[in-house]
Amino acid sequence: MLSRISRLGAQAASRARIGQNSVISRNQKEAIGSCMNDVGNHSLCSATDANASDRSEQPEAKISVTFVDKDGDEKLINVPIGMSMLEAAHENDIELEGACEGSLACSTCHVIVTDVDYYNKLEDPEDEENDMLDLAFGLTETSRLGCQVIASPELDGIRLALPAATRNFAVDGHVPKPH
After folding, report:
1. Residue 35, pLDDT score
2. Could you tell me which residue, 170 or 1, shows the higher pLDDT?
3. Rg, C-alpha atoms of the chain
4. For the segment 57-77, what is each residue's pLDDT rounded down to a tens digit?
5. 70 — alpha (psi -120 to 50), left (phi > 0) or beta?
6. How many Å apart are CA 86 and CA 138, to the nearest integer?
7. Distances (CA, A) of 172 to 55, 108, 166, 168
8. Which residue from 1, 19, 50, 134 puts its CA 20 to 30 A from 25's CA?
9. What does the alpha-carbon distance between residue 122 and residue 137 come to, in Å, rounded to a whole number?
10. How far apart are CA 161 and CA 67, in angstroms?
11. Residues contacting 87, CB < 8 A, separation 6+
C-alpha cells in the first residue's frame, strides 16, 4: 500500500537521517529510516504502513459494555480501550445521537451509568461537560456524556442506560428569541 510522506514527515525524516534532533519517536525514526531508502527511488510510504503488520498481530484490548435503551432492551458490545462510548454506540447501531460529534457542545449523547460503583471509577466531569449535562433530558446523579466516557479496563462490565429523550435545540424546533 502506497501513501505519501507529508512535508513535515519528510523534514523529520531528513533530520533523523542526518542525526539532528527532531520531535519524533524511536518507532517513527525506524519506520522513516526504512522508508527513506525507497524515497530516493521515487517510492512513497508512511510510518503507519511500516507498523500496520505489528498492530494486526496483537489483539486489541476490549471491554464489555451494555447499553440499555429507553424500552429496556439491552445490547452487549465489546468496546476497544480508549474509545468513547459515543463512538462505540455509533459503530454498533445504538441510538445515541451525538449531534455535536463529541465536541462538548450539546447533551444529545447523555447516558446514565446504572451502577454507582462504575460511576465512581470515572474521572470527574470537567466544567464544560457539567454545563452541557445541565441541558440534558432526564438528568440523574450518575449522568455523563457518552463522548466523555472513555473505555478503560476498570470499566469492563459497565451498563449505560439511554434516556427516554434528548434535547437537541438545533432540530427540536427551538427558535432563539432576540433580547
Report:
1. 47
2. 170
3. 22
4. 667 899 999 999 999 999 999
5. alpha
6. 18
7. 43, 12, 9, 6
8. 1
9. 21
10. 6
11. 102, 147
Helix H or strand E segment including 137: none
Residue of 118, 114, 90, 103 lying closest to 162 (CA atoms): 114
Query: What is the DSSP annotation of 15-67?
Result: HHHTT---S--HHHHHHHHHHHHHHTTT----HHHHHHHHHHHSPPPEEEEEE
- Is the pLDDT at 31 greater than 60? The verdict is no
What is the total residue count of the chain?
179
Calpha distance 162→89 (Å, rounded): 11
Q: How far is CA 166 from the centre of its chain?
A: 21
What is the CB-side half-sphere exposure of residue 64 using CA atoms within 13 A? 4
Distance of CA 27 to the CA centre of its chain: 23
Question: 127: part of which helix (H) or strand (E)?
Answer: helix 127-133
